[in-house]
Amino acid sequence: MEHWNNLWSTTEALSSFAEGEMAFGYKGAVADYWLSVFETLGEQAVLADLCCGNGVLLLAAASYASSAEKDLVLYGIDAAQVNFSAVKQQLAKLTPKVKSEFLDNTSIEKLPLADQSLDLAISQFGFEYTDLDLSLAEVHRVLKSGASLCFIAHHPDSFISKDCQLGVNILRSLLDQCLYFDLAISLIELTLQLKQKAISPEKVPAFAQVNRALLSIMQKFNQSYQSDEAQEWFSDLFRQTAQAVMKSDAAALETIKTLKMNTGFHLQRLLQQQAVVLTQEQLDAKLAAKPGLFTAAVYTEIRSDDGLIGLAVKLTKM
Question: 286: domain range?
Fold first, then answer.
């Protein structure tokens, strides 16, 4: 969970798998899907965003409720430690206001909600991370009769999953095979030691050796990964490393150590994403093992010009 605590306590973006224009809200096919879900709500309803992260989906629901003048009560719930300041700032701008409550460090498998208290449960790239054997039964408990759980899950064939696999290959190589950050740390530490002794680093063979090794890794990656998609995984890391090595002071050393730690957390999140991807067949098997909870699942592929985004699932309580 520490790798998610690290993300949600440091980023201002509202989504973990959203870059650029999607960092602060969903657009296109994803937005259209959620609008169709929200439009099924009555004039008064209680809704919970499960595995809400920093709250982008909750904000979409609140924006809809405000514009449609529906009286909704919204819960944002996540198992990680989350900084909700960004979404709260956005919610404060809505007129009329929408009632909302945020619960972090809260297990989806054991929700602090009363039986049959929800008109709708939603999740975006989150519910598949839970223990489905437990969370499906728990969501069934808190949903009203006839109410639904709607979520979009990562799918193994989505372009997000394919990009995450590319990220896994690159970051794992930098961290574990090339020891890129360790070399940068060693170079700065050596520079600091030499400065204390008033020795010019350029005159020390070990300095030149480590420096060449670091430059060789950067050249190798730039040659091996030339696509824009691949370059996005390491170009900024290389830029920050180069700046730190140029400075080579105590602050630069801490910068590289933090960069290594955050990259490690990022790799853990990517590996987990790869592990939780969900197919229709996998979920149907889970549901078959728990008969009597929901009617037959309704599946919708969410697509954009880039390809498959994810698998939308609707489960309605019997």
Answer: 2-158+277-316
